[in-house]
Amino acid sequence: MLVTPPSSTTIAILTPSGRGAVAVVSIRGANAAALVSMFFVPRSAGRWKHAAVGEMLYGRWTSDAAAADAPAEDVIVSRVANDTIEVHCHGGIASKRIAEDLLNAGAQLCDWKALASQDKETLIRAAARVALSDTVTERTAGVLLDQYNGALETAIKRIAEKLETDASTALSGLQQLVDRASIGLHLANPWRVVIAGAPNVGKSSLINAIVGYDRALVFDQPGTTRDAVEATTSLDGWPVTFIDTAGLRTTADAIEIAGIERARDAAKTADCVLLVFDASEPWTDECDDIAREWPNAIVVHNKSDLQVDHEPKRLAGIMTSALLRHGIDWLTVAIIGRLVSAEIRPGDAVPFCKTHVEQLEIAKHLIERNDLAGAKSALLALIEPR
Ligand SMILES: Nc1nc2c(ncn2[C@@H]2O[C@H](COP(=O)(O)OP(=O)(O)O)[C@@H](O)[C@H]2O)c(=O)[nH]1
Ligand SMILES: [Mg+2]
After folding, report:
1. Nearest to 202, CA basis, from 356, 50, 329, 320
2. Is 84's pLDDT higher than 80?
3. How far is the CA of 244 from the centre of ligand 2 (A)?
4. What gap in Å lies between CA 336 and CA 287, rounded to an integer?
């Protein structure tokens, strides 16, 4: 009874992997209904063949209709489009078995993101749908939802139209979009903030104070954080990953040196570095050396609850006490100020995909070189239906 469907019949599990009470298996292709019919028997017989798009049918999925003891499962089957059927079933073993039945019958497994990119949506809408599944805060989901609903496409269309009459307004509109890309590119990828500084100044304690729970290793023996420990949190609705590092200092300990090197590597790719000093310790030449290595860092003087050393050479910075949680709000304001460079209001257009940003940059350069027709087609390529 094995039907060989055309190789274009693809299945994808739409629900995330892991434990879950329910799962959804999507089957797509001209032969999708025939394939599902091999295993699915609706409660009201005969309805399935003529099921309209949008109709949902309750019934039973039997892995092998010929075997009386074959595993069976209650499912809901829905035709969501002419060539697309969804099977709603229990998660775990049940969804795996349903997928296996379909694969054994000749369907091909496909990642749902690849399936989404086959949709006849515009590039931007399809990308927003995928990015929405990767985003972790309500605020970033809201911005992506705006792009899914057309904010970016409308802005690009307006700029393309403006090119006909007023190239300089079009250029400034495009520049505004490009400026927002530094935020857009982090909607589905948290910003990375590295915490550096000498051992024992309170780096790990500061991470714990910022994220609100004990994530990083705190120990009163200098130099005990040997691996970079990460913790992701939301600051004012923006996703930020903090990376704790081993202390920066000269050391003969091989493991410690490796940790310090990792800290320097992590800082190279970070969006921002917090450089922490101990406010209660004298300011030394070594402090100056560290500060020189990280000229763009946000400087933090921690342990402000102790007797503070007011050496005039001490760099200006934010005073905190990780112990008493003093100054943490100021610190988070400074971090957000550094990371989120533009104001984003509801409904604003925000480019959020590297390839789209590159295309916008190309259009910008073409306008600057007075190739308005070229710029217009570069913009339209982003929004035309596929
Ligand atoms: N008094 C005081 N002690 C602190 C503060 N922050 C950290 N410490 C203590 O300093 C020691 C080193 O802290 P830790 O976070 O492990 O420093 P790290 O080596 O830079 O990661 C621990 O004993 C902490 O309890 C603070 O704000 N005030
Ligand atoms: Mg530490």
Report:
1. 320
2. yes
3. 7
4. 25
